[in-house]
Amino acid sequence: MRFPKLPNLGLGDRIPSHQELERMEKEEAGDRPKWDNKTQYMLTCVGFCVGLGNVWRFPYLCQSHGGGAFMIPFLILLVLEGIPLLHLEFAIGQRLRSGSVGVWTAINPYLTGVGIASLLVSFLVGMYYNTIIAWVMWYFFNSFQNPLPWSQCPVNANLTDLVSECTRSSPVDYFWYRDTLNTSTSIGDSGGLQWWMVLCLLCAWLLLYVCCLRGIATTGKAVYVTSTLPYVVLTIFLIRGLTLKGSLDGIKFLFTPDLNELMNPSTWLDAGAQVFYSFSLAFGGLISFSSYNSVHNNCEQDAVIISIINGFTSVYSATVIYSIIGFRATERFDDCLEGNILALLNAFNLAEGSIKEGNYAESLQNLNGTFPETIQSLDLKTCDLQTFLSQGVEGTGLAFIVFTEAITKMPVSPLWSILFFIMLFCLGLSTMFGSIEGTVVPLQDLNIFPKRWPKEAITGIVCLVSFVIALIFAQSSGNYWLALFDSFAGSIPLLVIAFCEMIAVVYIYGIDRFNKDIEFMIGHKPNLFWQVTWRFVSPLIVLVIFVFYFVTKVSSNVTYIAWNPSSEDFPTLEVLEYPAWIYVIIFILAGVPSLVVPGTAIFKLIRRCCSNKNVYGAEVDTVSAKVQMFTTKMS
Amino acid sequence: MLVRILVLLYLVGAPALAQTLCQPNASNGYRVRISIKTALGNQAYEWNENEMFLFQATMAFAMRRYYKTETYNVDNIIVCNQTRRVSFWFVVISPENPTMLIPKADVEKAVSALTTRLPCRPMSNSMSRHRINNAFLLTDRTLEFLGIHPTLAEPVNPDTPPWLIVFGVVIGAVFAGIIALLVSSLLQKRRKEKGMMEDGQDEEDRQMKGVENGINLDGIYNRGFTDDDRFTKL
């Protein structure tokens, strides 16, 4: 019984057959780039998948959704959603030997929109992701001094006192919001370009350009460093972290399971979203990378290995991060307690050392009994280790505020700071390689640029245009724009694309044909697990996550958090509503890539109806396949 | 006789007078708080009369440095109300007139640094506080004069911020890399073109073949598609 599929004429003419693939393999049509060896390919894919999200999103999710219990939905969804989707992208790229636009156009010309949507999303996400790398570079440049600039408040202009914005918040907050971002109070207040940020942004894009100049010929060499260095640094931090006081408290806090969280649907949805975004699916980069492989490469094994590595990296980096967070929380707790003890000693003129951590609670009770008014007037802070540990932060807050503060408390801080930011830089850069691949190759396939233009020129133009547009993020309000891009450009469109990819392969390309292809490529048919997940389970999970996201975003008031020194709750961030014109931007970010999918289909339909010559289904004009043939059918 | 009585009165009365001058919350006195254990931990020393003597001596030293005309002595620094915390009050009396207290502001000036910057001698006036701290192996935080704020260290402003230097190094390396790669790409292409021109004769033959089928193929004949029967499907 053949699995139902939609009618798809002329498929055989658009794609190379198995015999042609064998022939291409033997004769090695030299124009298509190839991996020098399997290691390069694996390192590139690992680098693309393992990114900043593994370091600063997963630990937060883990800790806020019941610690060790979060592993259960995470691992289940990794197996049911992540691995099948990854295998699908690898297999289709390897089979059809083309980038995202080429692959979907070959399956059906009306599906070109899926490729174009991937292109747009890769472009938009690449823009803001590289800005984060620019921020990392700024911190890296500033790490070469002792003491670190974010370890103490600067003195104000009259040299009378420390800057008030800093004393009211903290030196790390001040360095991030004022010295780095020079943030304005709202997204509407642009505040002009910050020259130091422009320089860092320029540096980031130039560095990316030098690594991506010649496509995988250069990135393939760069990944030997960018994909392996993070693991080295994580191990160094783990060893360092475990020798610090309080690190084990942090790890215990992270992994203490709270099984009640499993009843909460948002735990499962967050786990699903994390698996999906963590694998960098639907960007088109993975399809491209896999298309440079030899035809008989074992893509099934690759998908499983990379998924395992990705999952392992998430857990490993969560351990490291929380060992350092545990250290920081313990330091804060000790400082808080010391402050209270000092206040008591000073108020009651007791000898030093009479109140210690051990007898603090007892002594406080005694004193409160005898002199309650004095105790009241002292205004002692409550010091609770659990509160400090659960100041769970994610994203840029974790890296640039919490972790940098922890680093200042470690001996030889500049060294740890340099190592940490090199690690973040490598994690981000290797993900950018995939983004650039997902942008440049579709542009070549769509013939936007003349064919004789070398790859260096196209990559240069992409980097230049991205840099110019990314100058938005170098303004005072840049941080708010980045959060906007992160919420909308990198979320909904990807889910739409992934869903369309699965429908396209299973129902339009035909799962039976796909099974035969895989059997041809790796020697055995995909087993029952793949069949069930590809046909039903994975599309269903992606659909559920999409619906949930869409409903939440549309129904809730869209707000953002702003740093406003003159607000009441300062240093707590102020919650503001977006101005009305932002909704246009949101539509451009989330709506346009999603609507391009049906839009291109409709456009092609109209074009076909209007023109007499019925050019159907055989126009595959891609640089990557170097095939030019078409048949014309008289209608 | 009278002289002896007067001398006796003076010897008895002076300390008593001194004691009345020094009182907690005295208008011209300062409270000092010392935290030796916090500063030195295991190597903390015991605070006793000898240390107190050293304190009086260093305060006299600070007063002498500031008021270069008058000679202060240990007796001019009067201490009272010492607690277990190790905190106490002190007042300074003038050497000429034992009943006159030196005003609070003058004592503060003697202890702390000047608030105006002197370009030629940047640290000399804050040396008093520095020297007092060092005499006791303590810091501004552990030897507190309540009411006198520790002066802030002058910010060290290097000519080029250090981050610009690192940025310059990185950008220089990146530019060098880009130029090297682009130049090598160009050279490779030129070498290829030269190689192509040399066997241009073979190229032309192949091109002629390509045109024969009625399909115009640019460049190299694509050997991947030699299935002729495909085109007869019409």
Automatic annotation (TrEMBL), chain A:
Gene Ontology terms: cellular component: brush border membrane
Record-stated family: Belongs to the sodium:neurotransmitter symporter (SNF) (TC 2.A.22) family.
Entry keyword Calcium: no
Chain sites annotated for binding Na(+): 47, 50, 54, 278, 310, 427
Species name: Oncorhynchus tshawytscha (Chinook salmon)
Matches recorded under PROSITE patterns: NA_NEUROTRAN_SYMP_1, NA_NEUROTRAN_SYMP_3
Keyword Glycoprotein: no
Keywords carried by this UniProt record: Membrane, Metal-binding, Sodium, Symport, Transmembrane, Transmembrane helix, Transport
UniProt-listed Pfam families: SNF
Single GO molecular function: metal ion binding
InterPro entries (alphabetical): Na/ntran_symport, SNS_sf
BP terms from Gene Ontology: sodium ion transmembrane transport
Protein origin, superkingdom: Eukaryota
Gene symbol of the encoding locus: SLC6A19
The name this protein goes by in its record: Transporter
PANTHER family: SODIUM-DEPENDENT NEUTRAL AMINO ACID TRANSPORTER B(0)AT1, SODIUM/CHLORIDE DEPENDENT TRANSPORTER
Transmembrane segments: 41-58, 70-92, 113-141, 193-210, 222-242, 271-292, 304-325, 415-436, 457-476, 488-511, 532-551, 580-603
Places the protein is found: Membrane
Automatic annotation (TrEMBL), chain B:
Record keyword Oxidoreductase present: no
Keyword terms of this UniProt record: Cell membrane, Glycoprotein, Membrane, Phosphoprotein, Signal, Transmembrane, Transmembrane helix
Subcellular location: Cell membrane
Pfam families in alphabetical order: Collectrin
UniProt-listed InterPro entries: Collectrin, Collectrin_dom
All copies of domain Collectrin-like, residue ranges: 26-234
Annotated transmembrane regions: 163-187
Bilayer topology term: Single-pass type I membrane protein
Gene Ontology cellular component terms for the protein in this record: extracellular exosome; plasma membrane
GO biological process, one term: positive regulation of amino acid transport
Signal peptide range in chain numbering: 1-18
Protein name listed in UniProt: Collectrin-like domain-containing protein
Lineage of producing organism: Eukaryota, Metazoa, Chordata, Craniata, Vertebrata
Gene name of this polypeptide: LOC112248915
